[in-house]
Amino acid sequence: METVSSNLPVWIVAASSFAALLIALLGRWPNLREACIFGAALIKLGLILSLAPTVLNGQQIEFEVMKLLPNASLAFRVDALGLLFALVSVSLWIPTTIFSMGFLRPLKRHAQTRFFFFFAIAISSAVGVAFSKNLLTLFIFYEILSLSTYPLVTHHQDDDAIKGGRKYLTYLLGTSVGLALPAMIIVYQQTGSLEFTNGGVFAEGVSSTLLVVLLVMFLFGFAKAGLMPFHAWLPGAMVAPAPVSALLHAVAVVKVGVFSIIRVLTGIFGVDRMANAPSLGTIVCILAAITLIVASLIALTQDNIKSRLAYSTIGQLSYIILGVGLATKAGITGAALHIPMHAFGKITLFLCAGAIYQACGAKCISEIHGLGHKFPLTMTAFFIGSLCVIGLPPSGGFISKWYLLNGSLDSSQQWAFAMFLISSLLNAAYFLPIVYKAFFSEINDPDRLTKAKEPPSLTVVPLLITAVGCLMLFFFSGKLIQFANTFTELYTSP
Description:
Blueprint: E1 3-5, H1 8-25, H2 30-56, E2 60-69, E3 72-78, H3 80-104, H4 112-130, H5 135-153, H6 159-191, H7 208-221, H8 233-236, H9 242-251, H10 253-276, H11 278-300, H12 305-325, H13 329-360, H14 371-374, H15 376-390, H16 396-410, H17 416-440, H18 446-449, H19 457-475, H20 478-492
Parallel strand pairs: 1-2
Antiparallel strand pairs: 2-3
Helix pairs in contact: 1-2, 1-4, 2-3, 3-4, 3-9, 3-13, 3-19, 3-20, 4-5, 4-10, 5-6, 5-10, 6-7, 7-10, 7-11, 9-13, 10-11, 10-12, 11-12, 11-17, 12-13, 12-17, 13-15, 13-16, 13-19, 13-20, 15-17, 15-19, 16-17, 16-19
């Protein structure tokens, strides 16, 4: 694999951090503040796209910032998977910002400048993870992301927000410091390297018991991925405003968790070792499958819309982990593709939930009877987002799940095929009734909803953009598949 040296990844990571400083300085002037955000997002997006031809040509862009340890530095590497994740994160930053303006301003929410400041830092952290050359760099940005999103989770600053934020930090910092960091130290002590490498970093003959222990420590240590039983932080974080929920579930936080696990499984353990050591792949697949099914069953029981979406996210993240655990080309490609597909579907659903709450105060599924007549655009977008998460055409979710299903048949874990199908049926069971109630039921609270109307344009336009994105990912998936295949070919080749 040919590498190209360039400091451009550093500037891409730093761009939104510079924007954060300007946001803090321009807090008195909201229009200038938000203009700064859009400017930074467009610059960041343009720089990322400028790297795409190089990466798709089979090259990687690298840059070392500084040495921190022998054979371990603060360094960046842009490959196909990292570029794909960065592209998704920054692309969705734009509609989320527009929605935030429409959601926060009319309600005169407090501390809006603080909100946008930490939002920008979070995006920088997510892209830092995406472009990490080694496990040390990834871990640093992983922790920065945890700390920068805490003020967003606790934005309301009431008792529920403080409680949710405490659980958020306890789980994420507790697992990363208590499990992922020790595992990383052991890897470094055993191999002398933390760099993501085709074939992994472990020598032949390493203890299989040690590998199993390290694998479990990494899987649970990166708790942002939501594997059970370290998932409770995610429903607890639903006390945050709707734009933050969208950030957590689609743009940055949870995707950083599964992205980190993909990096560890492919670049630290190695795909060949996962395939040739049945115990490793089986552990990954079993843990992911349990989370996949149990989270979907719990989602069925949730009346609160955001809670149902939260448990849906926990299940959908396990699709990605299970896909990598299959250790097949189709499985890994499907896992990579599911990052953007789920991101667009889930952000659409969370933005719709926020818009519904803003327009009529409804938080629960039992309150949405007939809302499709009042909010046709919002509920149509909700329907499209649901199709994407379920994995039905003509949405992007169908593409990633097609690869995942094929990957399961190509693997030694063919039982995963049934898990994917059962979970998809459960997805339909907890999403489609919401759409049915909205469009085909009578309004059950006419007094409250008589004057209700479609939310303001700043709220509706972003969710329509992401809903259209769900469809575009189906019809124009070629480049995304190329990104995923480029990554897969690199890490599954001898």
